[in-house]
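Subgroup meeting minutes
Present: P.N., E.W., G.H.
Scribe: E.W.

1. P.N. recapped why we're keeping a running log of single-chain structure predictions: easier to compare across weeks, and new members can see raw inputs and outputs side by side.
2. G.H. added today's entry (254 aa).
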Amino acid sequence: MTPIKHKALINVDLGEAYGNLKCGPDEELLPLIDIANIACGFHSGDPLIMSSTVRACKTRNILIGAHPGLPDLQGFGRREMKLTPEELTAMTIYQVGALKGFLDVQGVRLNHVKPHGVLYGMMCRDLEVAKAVMRGVPQGVPVFGLAGTKMEEAAKEEGVEFWAEMYGDVKYSPDGMLVIDRVKKPWTNEDVEKHVTQQLTTQSVMATDGSTVHLPVKDYPLSLCCHSDSPGCVEIVKTARAVADKFNAEHGYS
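Output recorded in log:
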């Protein structure tokens, strides 16, 4: 097993409110994170939410990425849809371009693209879906994804820089895929600490059947994801932050 060679950064999905409907406690999460994935309007988010979230992240020097999802507001982008490769590429360009407009106004660089929800899961399993989304990513912009899956393979084929992710509040199936819940379930602080610590220190994770799954992060830059719509998400992120900080300090990653 090759040791992790990069600092573990915390990323969280933000800007997932819509109109007057609030999603997660974004303001409470901002001081705890390094990177924000901002919803781009298809699974959630709207122009005013995108604009205010970009400004809030800029104020705190948080790196900002686009978080494009399937066109499914009612299902929050967590219901699978059948789209053509052309539709997948076009919807990615559309959503990333929308967020980039708000970034350009604020003079902020687009740090990355991270697909949302079931789109992410579809990309992990289906090479053609993954390649179609990758073709919608601006040149030179990295994609965050799950190493060892079709996402990584597609990034290589399409010449897209790849960042590996681990997860603080998502379980893994025995085949190493993510278990994407339609509605997030609660986690105890103890379970989050154990879940994150195992991933960072052993590059493996306990799957839902009790087996151990290897996480091939290789030499990729690494980010640990948590979700703003998980019950108790502030405590989840605080716990993940503490584990990541300890890991970074022990390995001299400042």
